[in-house]
Amino acid sequence: MTEPTAEGTYTLVLELAASATIEVGALGAREFAPGWYAYSGSAFGPGGFARVERHRELCAGERDARHWHVDYLLDHPDVRVEAVGRTPDEDVECEVSRLLAGEESDDRGGADERERVPGFGASDCDCGSHLVYEAGGESLRRAVERVHRTYRKSMCSRVEINSQA
User: Fold this and answer.
1) Do 152 and 158 touch, CB atoms closer than 8 A?
2) What Pfam family is a match for this entry (predicted)?
3) Quick check: 154 pLDDT over 80?
4) Residue 14 parent element (H or E)
5) Residue 3 placed within a domain
């Protein structure tokens, strides 16, 4: 398992059990359909991948502070973290998000069933969103694993997919 202080790119695979209207900071109220979401972020800076554990704690109700768009989604009682993909030492959150949405690959691997959630999690870049939605979860989870593995192979870094067990 990656040391919590390691840095890199991560993707949270989330399940939302029921439709919800969630107030997402400056984005305002957003409608979320039930299903599966993949949020890609970077963990560079203080704590590195400890940010992922902070996200898990927020989702479990062990924290209150919300700093990022994803924290508002994680704070909803019908959301759970299903898995986490990590690519240590690489800052590729935008690329990972585009691949998951099927925007940069000939092998779309189920991406036809995915859509980006506009404006979510991309306030510090030119991407339309870092949150991808899919009604079914297994295809999205496999895509997260495949995309992070792609960066491991092409950039010679490690990838980990950890299920919430």
Assistant:
1) yes
2) DUF123
3) no
4) strand 8-16
5) no
Residue 147 burial (CB < 10 Å; 0-12/13-18/19+)? buried
Instruction: Tell me the C-alpha to C-alpha distance, in Å, between residue 88 and each of 30, 93, 141, 165.
Output: 31, 11, 18, 22
For the record, the structure tokens of 20 come out as 């919800």
Kindly state whether residue 83 falls inside one of the protein's structural domains.
yes
Domain coverage including residue 95: 8-163
Q: Is residue 129 part of a domain?
A: yes
| Amino acid at the residue 45 | G
pLDDT top residue among 24 and 164: 24
pTM here is 0.86
Torsion of Cα atoms, 7 then 153 then 13 then 136, to 10°: 170
Number of domains within the chain: 1
- pLDDT tens-place string over residues 26-55: 889 999 999 999 999 999 988 999 999 999
User: Going along 44-157, which residue ranges are E strands?
Assistant: 79-88, 114-116, 131-134
Task: Tell me the torsion sign for CA atoms 9, 120, 30, 18.
Answer: negative
